Amino acid sequence: MAEKKGVEKKYSIGVDLGGTNIVSAIVNCQGKIVNSLKVPTLAERGKEATIKRIIETIHENIIQSTIALDDIIGIGIGAPGPLDVKRGIINFAPNLPGWIDVPLKKKLENEFNMKVVLENDANAAAWGERCFGAGQGVNNLVCFTLGTGIGGGIIIDGKIYHGNNYGAAELGHMTVNKDGPRCNCGNYGCLEAYSSATGIKNRIKNRIKEGIKSKFLNFDNDDELLQSLRLKSIFESARKGDKLTKGVVEEAISYLGIAIANIANILNPEMVVLVGGITNEGNKLLIPLRREVKKRAFYSNCKSLKIVIGKLGGNAGVLGAAALLWIPNNCSC
Amino acid sequence: MAEKKGVEKKYSIGVDLGGTNIVSAIVNCQGKIVNSLKVPTLAERGKEATIKRIIETIHENIIQSTIALDDIIGIGIGAPGPLDVKRGIINFAPNLPGWIDVPLKKKLENEFNMKVVLENDANAAAWGERCFGAGQGVNNLVCFTLGTGIGGGIIIDGKIYHGNNYGAAELGHMTVNKDGPRCNCGNYGCLEAYSSATGIKNRIKNRIKEGIKSKFLNFDNDDELLQSLRLKSIFESARKGDKLTKGVVEEAISYLGIAIANIANILNPEMVVLVGGITNEGNKLLIPLRREVKKRAFYSNCKSLKIVIGKLGGNAGVLGAAALLWIPNNCSC
């Protein structure tokens, strides 16, 4: 009984560092958030100001939780990359201006005097789903994070797979059409340019420029209005047969299906977990997606593959970050 | 000294089972072939006849080598798949008619009374290059086998990566163009349909049908002549600016570059090793290939990636098969 009490006393802190918000959450050994805090990143105020905000948010999170410092194992951070997981350094972050080679792990270790682990945000989300979400008990899974951009996390033999220099799982930058639209990464025809929220909106914008009109959505060439439009409205309009959005949505799903089929043929995982805004479409996304994968992947690789939507919603990253602190390759503290 | 002598006494047998030939080789602990034998598979004579030929070839190989049975650790077989590595069963082999769920491991164990390991032929080639060829000491590498078809092998953390049900590394069936030509696997626009020897020849055939003529090669609509043509002649003719072959060769290289860039972004390996007929082109292949990868892969993933040609030529598979018997995850016996 004493042992059980001991385990229950353990917590870790998960931090999700994004371009828009910082989320800090205290997570117990069962993967439940006992207290969390979300504050705007205010990245435009510069690197030092953002680091200060991260530190203050974690402090406030601890205070609000009333949990003793001794009961907290450490801090796990999911951050945009590229980053050096081993040394805990963010090399560069497109959405955090001025962040070049920032030793975030060391800074937080000095401040909190506890263990700190830094991880790529998409890997953290994959790890969250692996530990507490759709991928519980699954040792080989691939997670696609479908948001403004597209990221990914690969779990092999129950561990996050990093590759040779922490650059693995850049799933959004798989070339799916060699002559496709230019992507932010400099390449042409990346998955992200078709199937991310930004990609979908850019493709719609281009069609508006070509003179194609929507029956349901009226943008009046107002780019801000288009950018603020929710994916839900775009998908609904496409389903109603709208000329403007239909082709774009179908292409987004088709290319995502190709990317998943490629992952099935390359890695033969047990499960592909999809997280991010677009997954709100549920079966309206999954059914055509599975059809595309079936058309393209090897029979046995496809037959054995579960393609599912994550169960943790927006908390996958923060929960996964917290679980980085626990016994390596294990989802228990 | 006695210990060293012991090691030197150990051998294993590598078998490369192909649609055209069976190769059996006795390999010492340093990865040297001490005796090898190559016989035609004669697959058209049926499954039982081929199994008998495999057994006879191995027996003959042992006899010729004059090595005592006690000094042979076991038999490793590289075979076309899909196959079940764990149970040692070939589920199906397109080039071996009638081979459905053949328990080859068990059959050879019964015959030779020694340990037998079955592996996918492309994985065996990857393992050969990892142990004795271009990938010595490299723990994360991906091998493309570029022949009649295109296969692959993925080495992660120094081990062959099999995936959930032994279906990983089907690199030739990555979709690189969603509306591309039909592939033997049923999908459209697979890498294999563009960059394998068969793919290249089929694309040339289609261009001949479209009325495009070659300045250097004269097929007279003779398909047999085309099929017998060596890749070397096709590449040479393309380099001379031949209208018929140039576009096909450029496309073959470009799509192979895309596939490697995708692997770089997905797996971030330390090395990509290319084996098979097309690699005879050497730098004439490598230079445009590296250019394409650089254009498409993430900077740091590409910068750290070595793209090289295998060092074992046609022996990669048989050497890798022999090394399957040794200490797991290790390339020494």
CATH superfamily of the largest domain in chain A: ATPase, nucleotide binding domain
Low-pLDDT segments of chain A: 1-6
Q: Could you report the average pLDDT of chain A, rounded to the nearest whole number?
A: 93
N-to-C order of helices and strands of chain A:
HEEEHEEEEHEHEEEHHHHHEHHEH
Secondary structure elements and pairings:
Two copies of one chain form a homodimer.
Chain A: H1 2-8, E1 11-17, E2 21-28, E3 33-40, H2 47-65, E4 72-79, E5 83-84, E6 89-92, E7 100-102, H3 104-112, E8 115-120, H4 121-132, E9 141-146, E10 150-156, E11 159-160, H5 192-195, H6 197-209, H7 223-228, H8 231-239, H9 243-267, E12 271-275, H10 283-296, H11 299-303, E13 306-309, H12 316-323
Parallel strand pairs in A: 1-4, 4-8, 9-12, 12-13
Antiparallel strand pairs in A: 1-2, 2-3, 5-6, 6-7, 9-10, 10-11
Helix pairs in contact in A: 4-12, 6-9, 8-9, 9-10
What does this molecule look like?
- Two copies of one chain form a homodimer.
- Chain A is an alpha/beta fold and 333 residues long.
- Chain A has two domains: 2-120, ATPase, nucleotide binding domain (Nucleotidyltransferase, domain 5); 134-310, 2-Layer Sandwich (Nucleotidyltransferase, domain 5), CATH 3.30.420.
- Chain A has twelve helices and 13 strands.
- Chain A has helices at residues 2-8, 47-65, 104-112, 121-132, 192-195, 197-209, 223-228, 231-239, 243-267, 283-296, 299-303, 316-323; strands at residues 11-17, 21-28, 33-40, 72-79, 83-84, 89-92, 100-102, 115-120, 141-146, 150-156, 159-160, 271-275, 306-309.
- In chain A, helix 4 packs across helix 12 (316-323) and helix 9 packs across helix 10.
- Mean pLDDT of chain A is 93; it is low at 1-6.
- Chains A and B meet through strand 10 and helix 9 of A and strand 10 and helix 9 of B.
